[in-house]
Amino acid sequence: MLILLNLYVIIISSHGSIYAAVVSGRPAVLSFRRFPFEAIIRKWQKLNTGGIFMENRLRNYFPLIRERKEVLKEIDESSGLKALFQSWTPERQEEFLDFCTGMKGVKILYDSFFKEIMSPEYTPGRLNHFLSLLLGKKVVIRQVLPNEGGRIADENTLLVTDILVEFEDGSLADVEIQKLGYAFPGERSACYAADLLLRQYKRARDKRNREKGKFSYRDIKNVYVIVLFEKSPVEFHSMEKEYLHKSDWSFDTGLELDLLQNFIFITLDIFQKNMENKSIENELEAWLMFYSTQDPERIIELINKYPMFRQMYGDVYEVCRNMEKVMGMFSEELREMDRNTVQYMIDETKTTIDAQAAALEEEKKRHEEEKKRYEEEKKRREKEKKRHEEEMQELIAAQTAALDKAMKRIEELERKNGSDSIK
């Protein structure tokens, strides 16, 4: 039991760790314990004694953030919202309440929130700005293109977000957000880029046909496959200090050709590890932090250094005030995560089975090769034994013949010696 009478709790935050000094009624008694951030907050909120609460610093920057009891009251007053809320696990309920009340930041990479905040149709300047930083040149989105089922087979099952845009120069960019890193990221991305090139070729050819002109391969522009991994595939883990990977085509002779396919992979989990105990130093880091953090302290650092993000977070918390909309968005994210998790587990299991089958096949092959070597060695030894036996037989035959010859010679000598004695 936790007794709050005559207790004073001093809470110290340091880079995501929370330390609580609990002081009892006797000044001489002072003890320190380390608690998870969420556990401390929720304990005080659930007790609701009017005693000690952690300051919600995000509310100082965004006054429209609601109190926990206000959110729960609105949910309780609607039978539909209440039923939806109760259908979630306790962990998901707390996650929802945390970001709605500013105890944690919203996961911007949730598909619904990303498309709400980064919509190239309604707020094109934001995605233009980010992609310009990423590509190292100014780009302007001309239009958002429908996917038209162009994604090969059922490859989009692990995608959280997939936005296809066309730049003013005719280039295409496919911006993907991966919740869980898929297998064979290089091979898949190469297929996606080929798919984009083929799509662009057909569009350019059809346009020339409509204009009664002649098609030229000069009409084909660059295609970009840009993937943000929330949880990166294993292939990237060997480079723990690198989180931004850009393709660079080159020939060993120095030949220069424009091969049109460009790939950019961003591993946000590795980015977060690299940013531990570091401050945000540039605008690209600011964008990656915006996409990957839920830490209120980081969010405050972000909006103080780069005020443009304050408006984006303001839009997020404006959405959070529409309880029906935000609960629907969150519920859809949970369904999508469940589907992605199942698909990821299927892929991982298949990969494991394939690896085991390959290992078994390799072991079988090794065993057959050893058996073959054994059989060959056995044959060699039998052949050697046979050859040795034949040589022994030949030697015995030769020795026997020599002995017989010697015996005959002895007999001849004895007969001759007898004849000489008689004379």
How would you summarize this macromolecular structure in one to three sentences?
The chain contains 13 helices and 9 strands. The protein has 423 residues and is of the alpha+beta class.
Written description of the protein model:
By secondary structure, this protein is an alpha+beta fold. The chain has 13 helices and nine strands. The chain has helices at about 35-45, 55-60, 70-75, 80-85, 90-100, 110-115, 125-135, 185-210, 270-275, 285-290, 295-305, 310-320, 325-420, and strands at about 10-15, 15-25, 30-35, 140-145, 160-165, 170-180, 225-230, 245, 260-265. Strands 4-5-6-7-9-8 form a six-stranded mixed beta sheet, with helices on both faces. A three-stranded antiparallel beta sheet has the order 1-2-3. Strand 6 (about 170-180), helix 8 (about 185-210) and strand 7 form a beta-alpha-beta unit. It is elongated.
